[in-house]
């Protein structure tokens, strides 16, 4: 019986057999209809978009707090075509009759 080098738990034939079995099982799982579990890494673009949205939300909150603290006006957070994080709100006054 041949001895295995240190750190090698299985002989090469056993490794090849295990890897072949794992590959067969992976293919079986991938071909199963309705398999919704993704085995790939999460999409990097989605991760970046989520991080950017969280950063913008934090900036909006800080800008809103600053505006309310240092101004007598009223502001709201809203997506703006021009990149504004907060927008001033002007109240509507009813005309006097």
UniProtKB/TrEMBL annotation:
Record GO biological process: DNA repair; response to ionizing radiation
Main location: nucleus
Keywords: DNA damage, DNA repair, Nucleus
Domain of life: Eukaryota
GO cellular component: nucleoplasm; SOSS complex
Localization terms from the record: Nucleus
Job description of the protein: Component of the SOSS complex, a multiprotein complex that functions downstream of the MRN complex to promote DNA repair and G2/M checkpoint. The SOSS complex associates with single-stranded DNA at DNA lesions and influences diverse endpoints in the cellular DNA damage response including cell-cycle checkpoint activation, recombinational repair and maintenance of genomic stability. Required for efficient homologous recombination-dependent repair of double-strand breaks (DSBs).
Protein family according to the UniProt entry: Belongs to the SOSS-C family.
Subunit comment: Component of the SOSS complex.
Protein name, as recorded: SOSS complex subunit C
Gene source species: Cottoperca gobio (Frogmouth)
Gene designation: inip
């Amino acid at each position: 019986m041949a001895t295995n080098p240190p750190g090698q738990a299985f002989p090469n034939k056993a490794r090849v057999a295990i890897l072949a079995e794992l590959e067969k099982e992976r293919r079986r799982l991938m071909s199963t209809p309705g398999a919704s579990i993704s085995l790939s890494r999460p999409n990097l673009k989605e991760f970046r978009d989520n991080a950017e949205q969280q950063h913008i939300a934090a900036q909006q909150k800080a800008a809103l707090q600053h505006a309310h603290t240092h101004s007598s006006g009223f502001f709201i957070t809203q997506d703006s075509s021009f990149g504004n994080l907060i927008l001033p709100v002007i109240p509507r006054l009813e005309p006097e009759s």
